[in-house]
Amino acid sequence: MVKLTIAFVGLAAASASAAPLLHKRIAQVIADSTAKWEQACLAAGGAQQCNPLSITAFTTLLAAAGPCEQQDAADKMMDLAKQLKSDDMIRFTQIFVQQPRNSPNSVAIPYCQTAPRNPELNGLFQCQFVGSNQNTFANGAALGAAGTIPFGLNAPLNPLGSCPANPQGPVPDGQQLVDITTNPNAPGTAGGAAPPASTTSAVVAAPPAATSVAPPAASSAAAPPAATPAAGGSDKGGFQLANGQAAQKLNAKFATLSASSSCTDGEQACVGTAFAQCVGGKFVTTYCGAAPLTCAALPLVNSAGTSITCTTTADAEARIAATGATGGLTGSGASSTPAGTDANTGSQDDASTKAPSTPAPSTGNTGSGSGFQLQNGKDAQALNAKFAELTASSSCTEGESACVSGGFAQCVSGKFVVTQCAGGLTCVALPLVNKAGTSIACTTQADALSRIQATGATGGITGA
Predict the structure, then answer these.
(1) Is 340 a domain residue?
(2) Are residues 295 and 442 in the same domain?
(3) How far apart are CA 114 and CA 180, in angstroms?
(4) Beta strand 107-108 pairing with 133-137
(5) Total tally of structural domains belonging to the chain
């Protein structure tokens, strides 16, 4: 089972009645947490066993994951590391299990209260991010309550938010432990040290817990990004420029919309940073996920038209500029997030769009492109190959996004909910243009193929 590298299009409808988040969300590029482990795995001969485990592991850093899912994933990583006899994989696994998890409203994340299967992971637990309130936890508990003290300890950590790999305290917001240290400080291993000392003093009363807003329930009313028509010229150069200009006009229009704007049933747009569809005369918004993701209109590559999808502003601008259109995202030179919006206000906790640095190998792919662009093409191919194996009955993890039978799918209560793309379109993974990563969108097979080939990747949409 494939756990998607890039859950950047959330299918949870925004709740108009939900209370605002009291704190800014603390997130990270979760794929970075296992990238070095995956590279070590490939070097050790793990081949196609590496990428699926890497993906499964980094998705446990999302706030929606259970308190022991990160440790469970680390156990599986450790199993393979010992099978391949790779010291690097063992070390990177020990660091991964201590990586802080996303915090939706800047509170600490509860600790797993069971022992790991592998003794190499004994005494290891996640750090917290420095911006989190270390006295309040995401389950509503105050410091000292169940789940607020790591397994095996009997008093709060000193300092709070620390972990064996970073005993001096919490980790800077959004940073990866694997980029800060190469020493996991695992108890009982070479070069290891004991976990941060716990204090036996009385626990100081914590301030009242902040109200945590749970992600809204998934709604079948929300639809995935769909293609929109655009006027264009008769020759290739003509329609490409027209597509860029059409995308700019749409983005300029979207910048004027709000959730209360009037609309026609079925109409699709971007409202703030969210994807929106008109249902019952009102826009239902679907948040794209953590910044820098935003909703934008993009030009198609090989036919007249545009698509609406979740991507980064820089990627959208690069795609528009590639058509010859000038003036940035809206044609007026504007390139910022629409006024009055906050990319961090989405209540869906999604993964970053950045793909793992070393995806599972794609057979038949010997593209001649260079740098991250070629890698992006191969990443998209690897994802599309995985999607081809999925069905609506495939097992999945809550919130996981994918393409299933040509439709956009999100995992809800352990099952994929599939929303078919608009007429003639299909769901595919696409390479980003100006940074490492991929995106998922509803587009044509020909458009997807053109975008992948433009990176230098060969072997078609799946690399096969």
Answers:
(1) yes
(2) yes
(3) 27
(4) parallel
(5) 2
